[in-house]
Amino acid sequence: MILDNLPKDPAQRISTLRELVAHHNERYHALDNPEIPDADYDELATELRRLETAHPEFALEGSPAQQVGASASELFSPVRHTVPMMSLDNAFDDDEIRSWAQRLARAIDRQSTDDLVFSVEPKVDGVAMAITYRNGLFAQAATRGDGVVGEDVSANVETIASVPRELTGPKGSFPDVLEVRGEVYLPFKAFEEMNTRQRKENAKEFANPRNAAAGSLRQKDPTVTAKRPLAFLAYQLGQVEGIPAKSPFVTLSHAGMLSALSGVGLPVSHDVVSCVGIEQVILRCHELEAARHDLDHEIDGVVIKLDDLDLRDRAGSTSRAPRWAVARKLAPEERSTLLRDIEVSIGRTGRATPYAVLEPVVVGGSTVEFATLHNEDQVLLKDVRPGDTVVVHKAGDVIPEVVGPVLGGKGKRPPAWKFPKDCPACEGPLVRLEEESDTYCVNLDCPAQQLQRVSHYASRSAMDIEGLGEKVVQRLIDAKFVVDVADIYELDVTALAGLEGMGELSAKNLADAIEHSKQQPLSRLLVGLGIRHLGPTGARDVARATRDFERLRSSSIETLAEINGIGHVIAESIVRFMNNPANMVVLDRLPKLGLTLVEPESPTLSDGDGPLSGKTVVVTGAVPGFTRDEAEEAVESAGGKATGSVSKKTFCVVVGDAPGASKITKAEALNIPMVDASGFEALLETGELPE
Ligand code: AMP
Ligand code: ZN
């Protein structure tokens, strides 16, 4: 969408793009304070390059499309790079990798790329650094700057723990002058800790690890840098002089060079893999993409490099980037888009949650159209306003988040958003209690609350009534057939068949499903009632301890609080729910409508006496017939341990529908056996891997 507002005329478009790219270059490289997500910047730069190629008449010496980074700042002394520090060309999909490889093959007179060896490495999202060792001693560290002149940040880089002061290995194993290139970065964990500290000190949080690393490096005072747990990974050589004859640095391959670097004590990524042929490269890119959240640092791509150093020389470089390498960009996890509106949704307790209605945008691998904004304070804090362009963040399977507005500084901003005074569903007042951050619709007859309560009751994790989804419930409420959950049991097939979009057969199936749900165990009913603070595990604990609904209804806070796993807060919430007059009317009806309302005895095995005893099992994806909780519970009642992350100790990984890619990759890497959903029951019964 960032391209939508540009002029169509090529000359004007190019000139606008040049201004924009130069501006964002400066924000990113010189000021460490980007305004727009990287993916937006890439879009602008790619478009500019495309136009300059298509219209050579407008091409320009020194166009920002040809530039590497940004000019060095005046904060530090300049350092001239003897060997220029280049940028990398980008490939945005597999086919662009293939075309790059074909161009490369032509440049080095090869028929095919099938027998070429490539190094495939994570593109660490940090700051490029050139570190020079003279006679094995740390001498200087310089940033990339514009590729020719960088900044001398030696004092700061010297504080980084993973940058050795002195190279290891016998004298004569390393060159007299060794300039090593690599990335200074901030590991995820350190980044989170740093932001926690910033929050505590009421200081501004860092937007992402790269910014935090760049900001930490550009400190005038190295003691500030020293407090930031930066790290370094080496991936290349710069200027090298005086290589002793027997040194491991006498090598013809990139892999040999990396192992030489590691041999003298420089840190090298463990995730570098050599691949033969471009298809293997592509597979490895997919693997790294799937595992990107399991690495200890952020990556914004995968770098693919020709391994043979002689062939590299033959391939050569353009003014901006080598021909022998390319960066495969990964699906962006941050994009900008238009915030169309902020609306409010009403939950089953009446809580009014503001959410962003976005111009749909593909981010983190899926299309995002809505994102919760949590509550009034969050909207104010983020200061997002309908009409703003906003940055949306989504990583893997986490829920999408609106980070904040993109403020270009030009033009007037739309007015700030105000929390609506009335409920969008029932027009009753929305009330925010003092000292609370949440706002509520307090009208118990609010149709939006009814809808949420009944849909939640019927949902898979609760009473599991198939065919009673939100749409059908909405129709039942509109037709005034249903107001509360007890009304479900008074529906008859004729009434159901009369609903819009409902045929005879589906009406009958739904009636059967409703009938069937009367036998659901008490624990599911408790989940379905949606009692505040009471989750599925707590519901199970309470149901197992009380067994019977009437007994539960008459239990005191003290009795409930004695149940293992149930604290005072939950106990009090249950009792308050059971004794609320409006709820009591509904609850009184349930037994009369034929619900069994008991918790069956389940053979719970204690640790160590089930078929899976001593074994740890990871479940990923949906196993048909089980919710995630139930699947894990089943593992536990077979004596096993269910955990959420794959490690060397994992016995096996159960793979259901839509499994987590990173778990699979990890299991493959560690050689952990995988069991598909159809083998799950056998696994539970025997404790052994199914055939
Ligand atoms: P760009 O920032 O798009 O110009 O991409 C080039 C930059 O990628 C280099 O200057 C490095 O800072 C960075 N980079 C990160 N990891 C690697 C790697 N494994 N090999 C080469 N460059 C890398
Ligand atoms: Zn309402």
TrEMBL record:
Query: What EC number(s) does its UniProt record assign?
Result: 6.5.1.2
Supply the InterPro entries for this chain. BRCT_dom (IPR001357), BRCT_dom_sf (IPR036420), DisA/LigA_HHH (IPR041663), DNA_ligase (IPR001679), DNA_ligase_AS (IPR018239), DNAligase_adenylation (IPR013839), DNAligase_N (IPR013840), Hlx-hairpin-Hlx_DNA-bd_motif (IPR003583)
Q: Name one Pfam family in it.
A: HHH_2
Q: Which UniProt keywords apply?
A: DNA damage, DNA repair, DNA replication, Ligase, Magnesium, Metal-binding, NAD, Zinc
Q: Name one GO biological process term.
A: DNA replication
SUPFAM superfamilies assigned: BRCT domain, DNA ligase/mRNA capping enzyme, catalytic domain, Nucleic acid-binding proteins, RuvA domain 2-like
Gene3D superfamilies from the entry? 5' to 3' exonuclease, C-terminal subdomain, 6.20.10.30, BRCT domain, DNA ligase/mRNA capping enzyme, Helix hairpin bin, Nucleic acid-binding proteins
**Can you supply one Gene Ontology CC term for this chain's record?**
cytosol
Query: Record's SMART domains?
Result: BRCT (SM00292), HhH1 (SM00278), LIGANc (SM00532)
Q: Which PANTHER family match?
A: CHROMOSOME TRANSMISSION FIDELITY FACTOR 18, DNA LIGASE
* Xref: NCBIfam families: dnlj, PRK07956.1
Job description of the protein: DNA ligase that catalyzes the formation of phosphodiester linkages between 5'-phosphoryl and 3'-hydroxyl groups in double-stranded DNA using NAD as a coenzyme and as the energy source for the reaction. It is essential for DNA replication and repair of damaged DNA.
Q: Which HAMAP family match?
A: DNA_ligase_A
This chain belongs to the protein called DNA ligase (NAD(+))
Q: Which organism is it from?
A: freshwater metagenome
